[in-house]
Write a structure and sequence with these properties.
This protein is an alpha+beta fold and 152 residues long. Helix content is 41%, strand content 14%. The termini are far apart.
Length: 152
């Protein structure tokens, strides 16, 4: 099964099957729409959401094709502005809260994924060693690229 990878602020990785990551990103962007100030970041991230109804096709290696463009689910949160990272975490927490309130057994898997992701974030804020909870065997070096809106 192809995976997608998100690198978090301390270089640790969150990695899961592409379909789970795709669903998480869909839920996160749905929450971004309702966060004051996050509109531009929502627009940026929305293009990474798999939409089968729009003709998107899984590429077989952690992403999808849309209009002959190969779009991957992988990103490094450090390449986003601090404000956009804040929006990402706020939207992730809101998505988890909504899933829990639905109290539907079918959501257990995605709740586990969000809980793990948010646990990683709490560990980062506490300054924990990134290898304590890391889905990759390495700490990713700081990226050079700056992605998304808000960079001057």
């Amino acid at each position: 099964m192809a995976s997608a990878f998100w690198t978090l602020e301390d270089g640790r990785g969150f990695a899961r099957r592409w379909s789970g990551m795709s669903y998480m990103l869909d839920l996160i962007t749905n929450e971004l729409k309702n966060i004051n100030g996050a509109e531009e970041f929502y627009t940026y991230l929305e293009k990474f959401v798999f939409r089968e109804e729009n003709g998107d096709e899984y590429n077989g290696y952690g992403g999808f094709f849309r209009d002959n463009e190969d779009i991957m689910f992988n990103f490094d949160l450090r390449s986003f502005t601090p404000a956009n990272r804040k929006y990402f975490w706020e939207a992730s927490q809101k998505a988890l809260t909504k899933l829990k309130l639905e109290n539907d057994k079918k959501n257990e898997g995605i709740i586990f994924l969000f809980t793990t992701l948010l646990d990683m974030h709490k560990r980062i804020k506490r300054g924990e060693n990134p290898m304590e909870l890391n889905h990759m065997n390495i700490i990713e070096p700081e990226p050079n690229e700056k992605l998304g809106p808000g960079w001057n």
